[in-house]
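Bumping my old thread because nobody answered last time. Still need a sequence for this structure:
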């Protein structure tokens, strides 16, 4: 058991991102009177409990094997996944926003403070270390583009200018990192198998950016549609890349499939709510079905991997 705790992966928090995204989707469909409340509430409490369990487990790792946490924090790839912790807080804040606003506020402030620290630390880490281009993968989007999540519930708790600061930082780094990633993907070696599922992260920045922009500006305008259609473009692009996903060995990084699909589903629902154009309603159903199937599949693969004892192992 001690060895399992020693190698408890920081990437586990990507599971919380996926499940919280699904919780928010259930909440959206419940508010549209398309789904009973029990699905939303059940998954909300289950995801919260699982998140607290992961925090407890990683906390025990920090107490008993602090050198392993330091190793994660200085790792060229795993450092990016620490922001999954703060993003989990921000997503839980969104999930609780209409159900229990006080808890949402607490989660939001913890998430903002942690994410601000992780963002600056990670950017400083990038600048202070020399990186070869092959180290670049879509997981790099997590620490900086995660800023775009802040306004989604943040507009309820702070002035719009506060939310717009985080939105601007996230949008700025999305453009820069995407250009670097495209250079790496086209002109250099292919991504390692372990990180191919993280290609789905490319959907998240424009999808979340659309939701955040609607929350800040309260406007269905050209910029909102630009973000939305870019997100749909990446969904279609990944369908054309289906051959890259064949015969992949399962890793926890497969959970990267899930959250971006949830973000796209929510973006489709929001599009329908603000525009009342039925095509977005049908697209939200399609994305919802795809997202649920994906979560079910990845959950099953995770359980199988756990039974084989292949989760909490030395990844080096």
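Sorry it took so long. Here it is:
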């Amino acid at each position: 058991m001690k060895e399992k705790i020693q190698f408890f992966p920081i990437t586990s928090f990507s599971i919380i991102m996926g499940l919280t995204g699904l919780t928010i989707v259930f909440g959206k469909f419940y508010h549209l009177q398309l789904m009973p409340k029990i699905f939303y509430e059940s998954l909300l409490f289950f995801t919260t409990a699982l998140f607290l369990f992961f925090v407890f487990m990683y906390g025990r790792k920090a107490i008993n094997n602090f050198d392993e946490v330091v190793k994660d924090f200085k790792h060229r790839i795993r450092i990016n996944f620490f922001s999954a912790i703060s993003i989990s807080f921000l997503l839980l804040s969104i999930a609780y926003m209409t159900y229990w606003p006080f808890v949402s506020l607490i989660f939001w402030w913890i998430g903002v403070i942690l994410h601000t620290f992780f963002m600056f630390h990670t950017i400083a880490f990038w600048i202070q270390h020399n990186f070869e281009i092959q180290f670049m993968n879509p997981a790099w989007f997590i620490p900086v583009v995660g800023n775009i999540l802040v306004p989604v519930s943040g507009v309820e708790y702070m002035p719009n200018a506060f939310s717009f600061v985080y939105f601007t930082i996230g949008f700025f780094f999305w453009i820069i990192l995407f250009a670097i990633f495209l250079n790496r993907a086209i002109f250099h070696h292919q991504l390692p198998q372990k990180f191919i599922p993280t290609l789905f992260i490319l959907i998240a920045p424009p999808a979340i950016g659309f939701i955040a922009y609607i929350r800040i500006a309260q406007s269905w305008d050209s910029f909102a549609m630009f973000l939305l259609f870019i997100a749909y473009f990446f969904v279609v692009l990944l369908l054309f890349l289906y051959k890259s996903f064949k015969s992949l060995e399962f890793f926890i990084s497969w959970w990267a499939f899930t959250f971006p699909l949830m973000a796209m589903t929510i973006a489709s629902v929001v599009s329908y709510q603000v525009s009342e154009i039925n095509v977005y309603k049908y697209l939200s159903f399609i994305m919802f079905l795809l997202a649920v199937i994906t979560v079910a599949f990845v959950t099953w693969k995770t359980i199988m991997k756990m039974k084989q004892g292949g989760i909490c192992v030395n990844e080096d």
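The chain has a mean pLDDT of 87. Let me know if any region looks off to you.
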